[in-house]
Each structure stands twice: as structure tokens, then as C-alpha cells.
């Protein structure tokens, strides 16, 4: 998807951009947490059900004789959307699996250095730690600021960590905790010039920001289809640059490992079959892309523009109410935005595994608002993270602002 975030018809932010009933979301809940797991439109789920029924009518015919061609067609559609050659792209279940797949495939030596930022998603950071621990490599953490004002503040900390021992950099495209769209093209280019491969954790990027993976040139890129593309859960992409594909094997080694086929790469063959699974989430990706493409007159460029405009407007309501300055310029915002809020009370502890504060439960249980309240950068500091999808509208951010101010006052009674 190589469009821009401009030149699309305007859509009012006061109302949902399309009917929320297209999704199965509980209408009693103000859902401002699309960023965590996404939400799949009912019509796309119906398409997935049709795929499942087709598979179950003749499982052997479907899985043995037909599946590869269906996956090829779905990969081709997805590759066009993310600006890639379909031969360089495979399906995985989620971005965490994509990150693990690359890290478990690569070989590191004692003394090798692996760069990661201090805002990397916890699950991906755990995978990097595991790879380092079993090989004797060293994880080097680049501390990127939040708040910040300029791109250089995001670039310099990463590049300053590069040494002759650096073998890989694990980088977010969009940071999970703070919703910052990183200058990923420049980071990848600068690392490539220094001979350092980049593994980009693009969990939030597909469907939030325009992608052209061919131009980006990262050695490895993985991203979810179930978030901003609104595909069913269980669909994600792993893109591996052609010169790196011989290195990368699926987490599950299966029949493709000793294939005698010569009609396609081992990379495609191995990832297409890793055992008996339900492939229908991946097969439904084209259905999700088509549904969303037709949700607004301007298609995907308008969707991205509208969601970004709503996220910016929503965060402004909260910043004004809390009397705080924006922590980063608008150019670094996609469809997520983090709002620093007052520190948690001394007796409040973030929960596991998602590091959320009890205030998140309070907002849901008392006010019917589903929104993450994350310990960031470290307890007792907190951020409230808003998300913007087509079913959201500006009055919902006014509701959460009112509820938040009330609960913050209750936390610190006069």
C-alpha cells in the first residue's frame, strides 16, 4: 500500500466513520483499545467461516491439493498492499512468532552484540534476551526519549550503540507503549550502511501507516494483519529479504525440510506447511483488505488519514484537560497516542502479563471504557494509550477524559 496520508475526502470526527455494527464489539463498551488485539468486522469473520466450511467439506482435498494455491493468492494480495514481492513474504500467526522465527534461525557467537531500544515490546524483548542467553551474545539497549521533539533523538541513540561487534538491531516500527511511529526508513538505511541487519517489529504498522517493504530494504520485517488491517486473529506477515532467506526456517520443521521440489523456494515451501493448523485467518486477509478498502470513499489512504486525525484530536482533548504539553510532535503519530498521566498511588501495582495499572479496570468496570493504562517508563509512572479506528469518534475521547479526571481526583482526595 504505497499511498499517502493526504489528498483524501474529509470525514467528520464527531461520528464514527462507518457503522460500528460492522464489528461485533459490545455496544455498551467504549472501545478505545484497538491497538492491543484489533477487532475483526463481522463480514470478514463470515468470509473466514466460509473458508472453514470449504475446508471441512473435504479436508484432504483442501489441505493437500488446494491450500498452497489459496495461500499463494492471499500472499499476492497482501504483498501488493505492503509493497513487497510475494516470493519474499510468508504468513505466520502473529508478530511475536515472526520475531521468534528470525531470532531462533540466526546463529550468534559469544561477544556478538544485539541492539534493542528500551521501548521494545516485552514479548519481543524476551525473545531477544533468550537468543542472547543461549548464544553468549550481549543485548545492548538504546535509550530513546519520551517525550522528545526531533527525529535525531530517535536516531542517534540507536546508531551510537553500533560497534564492529553489532550483528542485529531489533526495532519497533510503531512503539507499543507510546504509539510513536519511528523513522524506520532512515534507521534501516543507516544500519544497512554500517553492515548491521535490522529486524523490524512492525506489529502495528500494516494498515496504520503506508508500507513499501521493497523500498525499506530491512533484512527482516514482521507485522500483524489482525490489528489495523482488521483481519482475523492468527494472521501476520514475515518478510525476509531475498539474500537472507536461506537462513530463515520456520519454528516448526515439517515436510518441506527434505522436499525435492524445484518449482519454488524452500523458504515458501517450508512456511506454507508446518503441520495441521487452521489456515483460514491467513486466507481471509484479502477479504479484510477489501472490506476496509471500501469502508470509506478514499480507501486505505483516507482510512489512515482519518484514524490519525482522530488520534491527534483525541490526545489534544486529554492534554488540554490535564494541562500538559504534547510529548511528541504530530508527525510521529499514527492511530495510537500515549498520554502521560499522574503517577499511580503508592499502593497500586501494575498487573501481569501486560503491565496494566488497576485504573484500567476501574475505567472499564465503573465507566464502561476499555482503554489501556500502562506502567511507563517505570512504576509509579503511567501512560494512558488511546487508539483510533473507524468505529471510534471524538465524543468517546471526551467521555474518557471526563471519567479519567474523576478517577484521578478519587485517587488523591483533598
Question: What does this molecule look like?
Answer:
With 414 residues, the protein is of the alpha/beta class. It is 39% helix and 13% strand. The chain is built from 14 helices and 12 strands. It has helices at 34-37, 42-57, 59-82, 95-105, 122-135, 152-159, 184-193, 213-216, 266-272, 280-283, 285-293, 299-322, 358-367, 394-411; strands at residues 30-31, 89-92, 113-117, 138-142, 166-172, 197-201, 220-224, 236-240, 336-341, 369-370, 373-375, 382-387. The chain has a 7-stranded mixed sheet, sandwiched between helices. A 3-stranded antiparallel sheet has the order 9-12-11. β6 (197-201), α8 (213-216) and β7 (220-224) form a beta-alpha-beta unit. α2 (42-57) runs antiparallel to α3 (59-82) and α12 runs parallel beside α14. The chain is globular. The N and C termini lie far apart (53 Å). Residues 2-9 have low confidence and may be disordered.
